[in-house]
Amino acid sequence: MDDKLMLMIPGPTPVPEKVLSAMAKHPIGHRSGDFSKIQAEIVENLKWLHQTQNDVLILAASGTGAMEAGIINFLSAGDRVLVGCNGKFGDRWAEVCDAYGVNAERITAEWGQPLGPEQFRERLERDREKQIKAVIITHSETSAGVINDLETINRHVKAHGEALIIVDTVTSLGATNVPVDEWGLDVVGSGSQKGYMMPPGLGFVSVSAKAWEAYKTAKLPRYYLDLGKYRKSAAKDTTPFTPAINLFFALQTALQMMKAEGLETIFARHHRQSRATRSAIAALGLPLFTTDECSSPAITAVAPDRVDAEQIRSVMRKRFDIALAGGQDHLKGKIFRIGHLGFVADRDILSAIAALEATLQELGYESFSPGAGIAAAAKSFNAL
């Protein structure tokens, strides 16, 4: 059956009909008063979502573009930074630093394991001459289904006193608590196709006063991604370059929906669905790739040992029109990932688990009692 695809991946995520309908409106002039009113509303609601009074700037870019902007606007070639690497995206930010001549010292953990806050503490405390200019962290590392202890790592950065904290919240903002002002986060990047419940195409960067001070002396080349230009234009409710106008319509609607649901309700929904999914996977006898303590609320990573991960994904897609994510890099073919990020309801989790049970039976996997996954997910939902 056509047009029944169900996205259960970490992005792009499902998009509400109201958001899709908003995108279908005719464009308006981006230098008009009408557009400025929309931008003013959007920025106010972005600050609500980020829990900040800092600037929140909007780019026509993906989350990667937002993070690249968040790195190059506040650093110079040769600067020493610490980059947390326990998945594909942490590795990516280190590669961005390498590309611009920033001296990236990688602090690593195995994929599926969280970054160790003590490693950051030790490196930062040894830096008595305050040469470390920034610490770059991926909060929710969806390539491995892990959430890192940003709050603790950030405390060590704050104790250092000089270093900026630059954070990839691409799959954590809008899924779990990221109180930018309370924690004093300096640069926070995210992307529209995740917790924002809209298509790809917009990137967001929150910038603190401390980061703007660093901007004044940063010397890396930048033009389109020069956040100073965006800040100057945003003060007048406009943009320095042509924006993705119809995505602004979508963003306006998505943020209105999120505000109506409420932050605490949004966070509780993501954590509830994560727990239910993990309970179901365990009941099916499939090994989880991460522990409960460090599992991302955006995605559940599964490492099947008696059935092929890619066969599971293939049958789910062909028989049930449900898209699951595969493993990346060295985990390709070894894990599959079930997304529960953004516009996902409890019934979507139940539908995906039911289809997964049927898929496992089709593939001859017999290490569970039929209905065990559904029963475990339902019990988890009913307990809350």
TrEMBL record:
<dbReference type="InterPro" id="IPR015421">
    <property type="entry name" value="PyrdxlP-dep_Trfase_major"/>
</dbReference>
<feature type="modified residue" description="N6-(pyridoxal phosphate)lysine">
    <location>
        <position position="194"/>
    </location>
</feature>
<keyword id="KW-0032">Aminotransferase</keyword>
<dbReference type="Pfam" id="PF00266">
    <property type="entry name" value="Aminotran_5"/>
</dbReference>
<dbReference type="GO" id="GO:0004760">
    <property type="term" value="F:L-serine-pyruvate transaminase activity"/>
</dbReference>
<feature type="binding site">
    <location>
        <position position="337"/>
    </location>
    <ligand>
        <name>substrate</name>
    </ligand>
</feature>
<dbReference type="InterPro" id="IPR020578">
    <property type="entry name" value="Aminotrans_V_PyrdxlP_BS"/>
</dbReference>
<feature type="domain" description="Aminotransferase class V">
    <location>
        <begin position="10"/>
        <end position="328"/>
    </location>
</feature>
<dbReference type="GO" id="GO:0008453">
    <property type="term" value="F:alanine-glyoxylate transaminase activity"/>
</dbReference>
<dbReference type="InterPro" id="IPR024169">
    <property type="entry name" value="SP_NH2Trfase/AEP_transaminase"/>
</dbReference>
<dbReference type="InterPro" id="IPR015424">
    <property type="entry name" value="PyrdxlP-dep_Trfase"/>
</dbReference>
<dbReference type="InterPro" id="IPR015422">
    <property type="entry name" value="PyrdxlP-dep_Trfase_small"/>
</dbReference>
<dbReference type="GO" id="GO:0019265">
    <property type="term" value="P:glycine biosynthetic process, by transamination of glyoxylate"/>
</dbReference>
<protein>
    <submittedName>
        <fullName>Aminotransferase class V-fold PLP-dependent enzyme</fullName>
    </submittedName>
</protein>
<comment type="similarity">
    <text>Belongs to the class-V pyridoxal-phosphate-dependent aminotransferase family.</text>
</comment>
<keyword id="KW-0663">Pyridoxal phosphate</keyword>
<keyword id="KW-0808">Transferase</keyword>
<dbReference type="InterPro" id="IPR000192">
    <property type="entry name" value="Aminotrans_V_dom"/>
</dbReference>
